[in-house]
Amino acid sequence: MTEPKSDLHRYLQSVREAVVWKLDGLSEYDIRRPLTPTGTNLLGLVKHLAGVEAGYFGDTFGRPFPEPLPFMADDAEPNADMWATAGESREDVVALYRRVWAHADATVEALPLDAVGEVPWWSEERRRTTLHLILVHVIAETNRHAGHADIVRELIDGAAGLRRDNDNLPRAEREWWDSYQARLEQVAREAGQS
Fold it and tell me: Burial level of 50, CB count in 10 A (0-12/13-18/19+)?
């Protein structure tokens, strides 16, 4: 039988690694280029998630992340956490995320799942919460952004999949995927004409 806290932590670590893996093998341009109308980009997702974990596992439990994060400050420009400046290298952003992981992991290790914290940016009636709920919340948010990273990466170079060692996709040749995509397009057109 496994322990619930270690199960939650394992799922969080797995998705953290998946997000960082989506940067592998891409140029500086490709990891920064906005591929949606709202500017979603791979390196920005990593930077955003660093800020998410610093806040939820730091400030929420009175254990603030020891480094300043100007992109998370109240006076930062809107969406400053969703993109990396030209002066912020891939190595800088990934290293920050890994330092935040270590800080978050120390919080998870130090506190029981029923430890109470307070999320200052949540509404007054929801503000008080537990480490258990924060773990679930951060796993859900990280998975949501991992899905964004999956789509952005596929748009860049066609790379897709769950993990480096398990793409979780049907084994098929390019022709099959082209045919599959064409079939779905045809179904969508037919349904749109109904």
Answer: buried
Q: Which two tokens stand for residue 128?
A: 């008080």
Across residues 103-116, what is the average pLDDT?
Answer: 98
**Nearest-angstrom CA–CA distance, 64 and 180:** 49
Helix (H, G, I), strand (E, B) or coil at 164: coil
Pick the closest to residue 145 from 65, 63, 68, 36 (CA basis). Answer: 36
Q: b/e for 94-114, b at 16 or more Cβ within 10 A?
A: bebbeebbebbeebbeebeee
Tens digit of pLDDT for each residue in 132-190? 999 999 999 999 999 999 999 999 998 887 766 777 777 778 888 888 888 888 988 88
How many whole angstroms separate alpha carbon 3 and alpha carbon 30? 40
20-48 in b/e form (b: 16+ CB < 10 A) is bbbbeebeeebbbbebeeeebbbbbbbbb
Contacts 24+ apart (CB under 8 A), 180-188: none
- pTM of whole model > 0.70? yes
Q: What is the pLDDT of residues 57-98, one digit of tens each?
A: 999 999 999 999 999 999 999 999 999 999 999 999 999 999
Q: How many helices (H) and strands (E) does the chain have?
A: 6, 2
